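Hi P.,

Sorry for the delay on this. The queue was packed all week, but I finally got your sequence through. Input first:
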Amino acid sequence: MDRIRVMLVDDHPVVREGLTAMIETQPDMEVVGEAGDGQEAVRMVKRLRPDVILMDLQMPRMGGVEAIQRIREESEKTEVIILTTYDSDEHIFSGIEAGAKGYLLKGTSRDDLFKAIRAASRGESLLEPAVASKLVERFARLSRKGPADDTLSERELEVLKLMAKGYRNKEIARELVITEKAAKAHVSNILSKLSASDRTEAVTMALKCRIIKLDE
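Then the structure:
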């Protein structure tokens, strides 16, 4: 059985050491690399191609959110779980929008951490209850908005469907055979037309109002 290749990204060596010792107790997991900041992590991903990354948010040189965006563009098969002490709405939404598959707080149990790693390796998401409840609250708030899909062009609907799949601008451009600049412009137009503050809000609103479906 192939083991899940895990990479750790945290600017505190003692945290990385503790996580390594913990993860290495699992027969189906192995730690293949460690990085002290996002910039180093982006470089290492190109070489190591890990299955799952445990990523802190606040780090020197390059923070977690930017690193997640860069990593998702570099390696589509690498999934990222945020493991941090920050539980504010801003941090949660920014991390999920960037492409993280999970969001755990550093006080999480060993079992929940292992479950999250295994879920991410299968392309699934696992959120702490406190984090999930914040997303549910936001979803409920967004459900009171009513965007109309006739405000979006056919091309913008295509872009929106790819956004729902987690595609970044570079991936959207490649999929639709357009320039990355054009993809960025379409995303900007979508956010404006739906009165959404970010990609996560736009996709959530579109799904709730059935402008798009996840299985499309």
